[in-house]
Amino acid sequence: MLLVPCPWCGPRDETEFHYGGQAHIPYPSDPDSLDDRAWGEYLFVRDNPKGPFRERWCHSAGCRQWFNVLRDTASHQVLAGYKIGEAGP
Amino acid sequence: MRRLEGRGRVDRSAPLRFVFDGREYTGLRGDTLASALLANGVDVIGPSVYRGRPRGIGAAGPEDPGALVQVQRGGGSEPMLRATEVELFDGLLAVGLAGRGRLDPTPDRALYDKVYAHCDVLVVGAGPAGLAAADVAAATGARVIMVESGREPGGDLLDGPRAIDGFPALDWVQAVAARLTAAPEVRVLCRATAIGVYDAGYVLIAERRTDHLDEEPPPGVSRERLWHVRAGRVVLATGALERPVAVAGNDRPGVMLAGATRSYVERWGVAPGSRAVVFTCGDSGYDAAESLADAGISVAAVVDPRPQSGLPSVPEGAEHMAGHMVSAAAGQARVTAAELTSGRVIPCDLLAVSGGWSPAVHLFSQAGGSVRWDAGVGGFIPDRAPALVIAVGSCAGTHALDGCLAEGVAGGAAAAEAAGFVVEPGPAPRSPRRAEARAQLVWSVPPPPGRGWDEHFLDAQRDATVADLRRAVDAGLKSPEHVKRFTTIGTASDQGKTAGVVALGVLAELLETDIAALGPTTFRPPYTPVSFGLLAGRDRGELSDPVRMTAIHPWHIEHGAMFEDVGQWKRPWYYPRDGEEMDAAVLRECRAARGGVAVMDASTLGKIDVQGPDAALFLNRMYTGDFSKLGVGRCKYGLLCHTDGMVFDDGVTMRLAPDRFLVTTTTGNAAAVLDWFEEWLQTEWPDLRVSCTSVTEQWATVAVVGPRSRAVVAALAPGLAVDNEDFPFMAIRPAEVAGVTARVCRVSFSGELAFEVNVPSWHGLALWEAVMAAGAEHAITPYGTETMHVLRAEKGYVIVGQDTDGTVTPQDLGLEWMVAGAKGDFVGRRSHARADNLREDRKQLVGLLPDDRADRLPEGAQLVLEPGADVPVPMAGFVTSSYDSAALGRTFALALLEGGRRRHGATVHVALPDRTVAATVVDPVLFDPEGRRRDG
To answer: How far is it, in rounded angstroms, from Cα B453 to Cα B465?
Structure first.
């Protein structure tokens, strides 16, 4: 049971959140400029590192806000939580 | 086997009657079922699961694989309990199990609760190390929880006389326990087992509260509680588990772990035998020999594989057979002699075995810690600790009492300090050190000449032996995880607490490798078995999931509706009239909607109020259609796609003001759509001035449907112009309906003239009743979801999630007209142009008319193009919806079919288990394709 640091509410149990995959994958500003391959990468391809990973979480059973988390995928240690739009550590 | 005078922590003034396997016995308060049975001379519990060998009591704690019982309690019974863990109470009724039990089908009337708690330091285990740790941490003012699986603190200090700080160790235990109990921020939980340690200091604890009581607990008192504890630091003082040695016949009753024989003598005042042979590979077996002898039990011999020099002394009268090993426990129903490798046979009725001690690293490992083999300890010890976890004492490989106390103090101090408390340095409690010789590792002893390995039990609960392990190795298996699954060693309810490391040692020998190179199999929670009742807590029956009901629900109940679960909603499915079957009811309801007037409770549709200056822009980016041109007071059907272009939801959206829309969603998807909106607003377009609010439960919606619906609505809303000119299709009108301020929409999910009347939920039931009253002269008919499904399918309207499955585009559904090309980008648009989504042979929505007009195809049935083709026959699609239609006078279906739109007029074959049905492919809009009926 991770302790997830919501930047709005503070640390809360993992069961209050849902997971939103890799963070900092912006919607392409001009989708038509991407060929099928590049668009497919945007849709389906994500990093899968062993170690620190920036990912999105939503405090769905709390403030309902999306935010970013830096988490070590090997140790499960949550290293930081930061708001959408912030660069993070 | 008998009760010993003057020993044990049992209350001799309180005899307790109990029944085991139909016979009455007497035990004492403080007994376990196992100790009480031993005191009564009973040590055979039941036959083993596969081989039917007699099995008895081999240990004194949760590690015992053999003594499985079923205990009667409170009108039911619970199987697969260990006699070594069942506390005796007056009137206990138990039977021995043959290796497996059967769940009692009677409902469990006991209560189970959950407790959520926080603390700074959680100490698992109240032996010497745990007590020392909790004592130090508590002194700093930290919030401490200490859990102990037994009924009292003390751990193995309860197993024999030891000294701490010059006084009897139990005095120290009492003093520490008293300090902890008195401290305001400390909680001591006994009869509580930490069953799992998870990330970030999260620990689950199973607390047993009432099973040891003679009487049924008072109403409202829960039998067990599951504690969810979030701890700042976790100190694991879980001790160590003694190991057996694989010798022939080591499963016979009368063969017992040496430490357990000592526990029975010292804790429970029970002699587990009358003439003992002790077979030990380390010094701890000598403590057992001493306890047994001291209690007047004859110790015939102490057998030790190590050379004589430096070994502790043996009790008077016992033969010290250094450099020897026991190769077999001889006997039939129980042990009658120990056979030595030298060939000598020593008669005995108790064979006490110690193969060494394995640190109980289960929780440490579950939490993510790694372990490594330590040859000096002769066991796997904690290596890299997981975050927030500290292992101390025997769990960390420290066996000597003095070391356990020192580590406990250090661990407790470190935990409190890390949690932000200040530790006042003080001396650790001390205990006299004694020299200890290194144990010799003996995993198995070769069988006596002429005998095989199939009586060398490794996992007695699984009846798995060294012979099984050798077979696994002969089959080429090398990985402990593979061997575990092949042999099932360690997979029983005790999870191999005694079997695991011994099996690993034997495996290492067979593979001619070092046990250090193998490593133990994965430790998984729960540490000891727990009941499902405990995990469920109060979330059972009605409380297992919330039930959502509309404002009109009482009317549906009163009028005999059958209900269907849609998400958490209860929706009327159909309304049978006296004795009607479902099919007949649905045909009748359909005829009413198409021929007269019918009414449906549509309140469960999701509703989201979308407001703000950029609301239209936002909806344009989310939905496939164009909302910027939608006039106020008008509504529009919309499709919602994911970024991959697949249809995700649909619904009608009303424009209530230039900057305000009311979006409706499918019943099951309301929360998901709101989440989807929020995700885009928050993460991609925080600049948009839009806010979204769920108003699903604020509105009740009554759909009045059919050619006569206009008359009914006109009667209810005299001020509302209901003719087609003043109130056209897809228009919204504010009105007084049945005296209630309402919002009326001309939308239709049936193809018929229809009015959806929306009122605040509070007035929903009154509105419904008014509609029923006003419609009475037109024989207004309530209908449920099944009729709704038929009516919409006749019109080819899809249900997202039934006719789509997340792989279907708007184009696949023939809804390209819903996709606005000129309005700019929207979610999913780019994906509609991906090469794969442009393939002509994609599965597309079609209608199907079975050649046999009465044959209703099962939904999900597969479609094939050539029924006689070689197997495997290629599947060309599947049926998504299938009904009998009153309007068409026949059955029909909707299906997704490869290249379906090109196949209109062709025949496909529906492959069913018992028959193959031919059907003609047609356009999905089967009824009123010109749409002439919607305006009445």
So the answer is: 7
Q: Please tell me the number of Cα atoms within 13 Å of B20 on its side-chain side.
A: 28
- Is 0.90 surpassed by the pTM of this model? yes
- Give the helix, strand, coil percentages of chain B, each rounded to 5: 25, 30, 45
**DSSP secondary structure letter of residue B540:** -
Question: What tens digit of pLDDT does each residue of A57-77 get?
Answer: 999 999 999 999 999 999 999
Q: Is B618 helix (H, G, I), strand (E, B) or coil?
A: helix
Q: Is B199 on the interface with A (CB under 8 A)?
A: yes
Structure tokens at B828: 């999913």
Token pair of B3 as six digits: 């009760």
* Residue range B390-420, pLDDT digits in tens: 999 999 999 999 999 999 999 999 999 999 9
CA gap B412, B734 in Å, rounded = 70
CA–CA gap between residue B625 and residue B890 (Å, rounded): 35
- Maximum alpha-carbon separation in chain B: 114
Cα–Cα distance, B86 to B411 (Å, whole number) = 32
Tokens representing B228? 């969810």
pLDDT, tens digit (0-9, with 9 covering 90-100), for B222-245: 999 999 999 999 999 999 999 999
The interface pTM score, or ipTM, of the predicted complex is 0.98
Q: Are residues B652 and B858 in contact, defined by beta-carbon separation less than 8 angstroms? A: no
- Residue of B830, B831, B839 best to disrupt the A interface, most CBs of A under 10 A: B830
Contact B368 A76 (CB under 8 A): yes
B357 sits in which H/E element: strand B357-359
CB B500 within 8 A of CB B461: no
Give the pLDDT score at B1. Answer: 66
Most A-contacting residue of B197, B199, B384 (CB-CB within 10 A), to test interface? B199
Q: Which residues of B touch A66 (CB under 8 A)?
A: 678-679, 682-683
State the count of interchain CB pairs (< 8 A) between A and B. Answer: 60
Interchain CB distance below 8 Å, A84 and B830 = no
